[in-house]
Specification:
The protein is an alpha+beta fold. The protein has two domains: 64 residues, Arc Repressor Mutant, subunit A (Orthogonal Bundle), CATH 1.10.10; 141 residues, 3-Layer(aba) Sandwich (Chorismate lyase). It is 31% helix and 31% strand. It contains seven helices and eight strands; from the N terminus they run H-H-H-E-E-H-E-H-E-E-H-E-H-E-E. It starts with a helix and ends in a 10-residue tail after the last strand.
Length: 233
C-alpha cells in the first residue's frame, strides 16, 4: 500500500524547504504551477499545501500567496490532559464525531515526530470534539499502529488516553505544544459550525508516554471564541 498522493507531495515540498530551495519568508510557486509540476489536480495539491500549513511549515497570506513560515515564539503548557478530562473538569459533557479513520503509511513529518521505524504504519483519524454538543475543536491525530493493536475503533475514538491506561497500562507523561493563530477555511468552518474566516487557535502537539516514547502527533484547530489555553510557568 502506497501513501496517498497528497502525502507524497507534502514530503517532496517539505524536503525542498529543508534543503533550502525556499528560504524562510519566501513565497512558494502558485498552486496552479505546482499542480502542473506534480501532474495532479489543484484539489490534491491544495490538500498537500494545507497539511504543511497545519504543521506550521507554510503560512497563507490573504491576497499574497503561500510563504515559508518564520519561526514563532514557543510556550510550553504544563502536563498532558485528555480532551475528555478537560471537558469533565469544566463541567461539560465530552463527545466526538469521527470524520475519517484509517491505517496508512506515515508522512515524513509523522515518521520524524513519532520516531517511527521503516515500514511502520500509523492510524490517522480526523475528529470533531464537542463540549455539551457544541463543536469546539477539529483535530487530526496520528498514532503508531502497533500501539493500538487490540483496541476497538470505539475505544480509540471516544477516549484514547483512557484506553491506553486501562487496557495497555501505558500512561501519558509530557507533551510539546505549539499554538498559533489561524482562520477557518470553508471545510473547517462547516465542521465546526462557524463562519469561514472566523478566528481559530491552531495547536500542534507531540505527546509522550512516561517512558519517553512519543505516542501521538496531533494538529488541532480550536474555535477562538469557545476555547482558551492557560499557560503555567
Amino acid at each position: 500500500m502506497g501513501s496517498p498522493v497528497y502525502i507524497q507531495i507534502h514530503n517532496e515540498l517539505r524536503k525542498s524547504i529543508e534543503d533550502g530551495k525556499w528560504k524562510v519568508g519566501s513565497k512558494i510557486p502558485a498552486e496552479r504551477e505546482l499542480a502542473t509540476q506534480f501532474g495532479v489536480s489543484r484539489m490534491t495539491l491544495r490538500q498537500a499545501i494545507q497539511t504543511l500549513v497545519d504543521e506550521g511549515v507554510l503560512e497563507r497570506r490573504v491576497g499574497s500567496g503561500t510563504f515559508v513560515a518564520s519561526s514563532k515564539v514557543q510556550e510550553k503548557m504544563a502536563g498532558v490532559t485528555s480532551f475528555t478530562d478537560l471537558m469533565q473538569a469544566a463541567g461539560k459533557k465530552p463527545s466526538s464525531k469521527t470524520v475519517s479513520y484509517h491505517l496508512t503509511i506515515p508522512s515524513e513529518s509523522e515518521i520524524e515526530k513519532l520516531k517511527l521505524k521503516e515500514g511502520e504504519q500509523v492510524l490517522r483519524m480526523e475528529r470533531v470534539r464537542y463540549g455539551n454538543d457544541v463543536p469546539l475543536c477539529y483535530e487530526v491525530a496520528t498514532v503508531p499502529a502497533d500501539l493500538i493493536k487490540g483496541f476497538s475503533k470505539a475505544e480509540i475514538t471516544s477516549s484514547f488516553y483512557h484506553t491506553l491506561e486501562s487496557k495497555a497500562d501505558l500512561h501519558p507523561g509530557h507533551a510539546t505544544q505549539r499554538v498559533s493563530a489561524a482562520n477557518a477555511n470553508e471545510r473547517i468552518a462547516e465542521l465546526l459550525k462557524i463562519r469561514r474566516g472566523d478566528a481559530l487557535l491552531r495547536m500542534t502537539q507531540i505527546s509522550y508516554l512516561q517512558d519517553g516514547r512519543p505516542f501521538e502527533y496531533v494538529h488541532a484547530q480550536y474555535v477562538g471564541n469557545r476555547f482558551e489555553f492557560v499557560l503555567e510557568k
